[in-house]
């Protein structure tokens, strides 16, 4: 199964992100991320075995994530897959440290694939050919987090949907 570790927005923030996704789609087209799928990926694990998945569920259930605040103040575009996202103009030290810690721990589960560069972002649109940021409201959001989730990505004829398998302890 295909897994990733992510922060999941609290309900009010999810609503604000959904509004930005609507505005972005009206301006740029593309396929909008459904509200229930909005997230911030910390680590994409790829395909794992059932045994690895069981171990990972257990690990996440016992994991404590230092509480943090991520300020979202920028639009971004990954040109090749046509992703329009919101995130932050400058690198975020706390999220980078958390991402590094997670990848160090993932090694012990036999999981590799740490990307050479980590750009924290929330994907709002896919298959969008361009980003017209000048037409869009400037993001000004604060994401307060204290736990992460292990999520399964399930792909079928309707596309991808996500199912949460476990959640770290509230810290
Ligand atoms: O946070 P986003 O939505 O950009 O693009 C996929 C999504 O990221 C990414 O993992 C997240 C949950 O599906 N993803 C999918 N396949 C990937 C791959 N082969 C991947 N990231 C890196 N390598």
Brief characterization of the structure:
By secondary structure, this protein is an alpha+beta fold.
What does this molecule look like?
The chain has 171 residues and is α+β, with helices and mostly antiparallel strands. It has one domain (2-167): Cyclic Phosphodiesterase, Chain: A (Alpha-Beta Complex), CATH 3.90.1140. 27% of the residues lie in helices and 35% in strands. It contains three helices and ten strands. The protein has helices at residues 11-28, 50-62, 93-107; strands at 2-7, 31-32, 40-47, 68-72, 74-78, 83-87, 121-126, 141-145, 149-156, 159-167. The strands form three sheets. Strands 3-1-9-10 form a four-stranded antiparallel sheet. A hairpin with a 4-residue loop joins strand 5 and strand 6 (83-87). The longest helix is centred in the first third of the chain and has 18 residues, at 11-28. The chain is globular and about 45 Å long. The two termini are 28 Å apart. The mean pLDDT is 96. Bound molecules: ligand 3AM. Residues 4, 41, 44, 123, 153 line the site of ligand 3AM.
Helix and strand run:
EHEEHEEEHEEEE
**SS-derived structural category:** alpha+beta
By DSSP (H or I, 4+ residues per run), the number of helices equals 3
Number of strand elements: 10
| Annotated CATH architecture | Alpha-Beta Complex
Uncertain runs: none
Strand neighbour order, sheet with most strands: 3-1-9-10
* Count of domain modules: 1
Biggest beta sheet summary? 4 strands, antiparallel
Helix proportion: 25-40%
Shape estimate: globular
Instruction: Round the Cα radius of gyration to an integer and report it.
Output: 16 Å
Give the termini separation. 28 Å
- Briefly note the CATH topology name: Cyclic Phosphodiesterase, Chain: A
Overall residue-averaged pLDDT value? 96
Task: Kindly provide the name of the CATH class.
Answer: Alpha Beta
Strand percentage: 25-35%
């Amino acid at each position: 199964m295909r897994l990733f570790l992510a922060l999941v927005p609290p309900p009010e923030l999810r609503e604000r992100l959904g509004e930005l996704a609507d505005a972005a789609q009206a301006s740029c087209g593309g396929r909008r991320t459904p509200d229930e799928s909005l997230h911030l990926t910390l680590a994409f694990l790829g395909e794992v075995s059932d045994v690895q998945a069981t171990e990972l569920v257990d690990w996440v259930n016992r994991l404590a994530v230092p509480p943090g605040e991520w300020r979202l103040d920028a639009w971004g575009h990954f040109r090749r897959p046509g992703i329009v996202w919101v995130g932050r103009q400058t690198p975020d030290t706390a999220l980078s440290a958390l991402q590094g810690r997670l990848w160090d721990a993932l090694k012990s589960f036999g999981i590799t694939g740490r990307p050479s560069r980590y750009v924290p972002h929330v994907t709002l649109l896919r298959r969008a050919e361009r980003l017209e940021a000048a037409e869009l409201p400037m993001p000004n959001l604060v994401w307060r987090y204290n736990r992460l989730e292990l999520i399964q990505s399930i792909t079928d004829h309707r596309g991808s949907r996500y199912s949460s398998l476990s959640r770290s302890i509230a810290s």
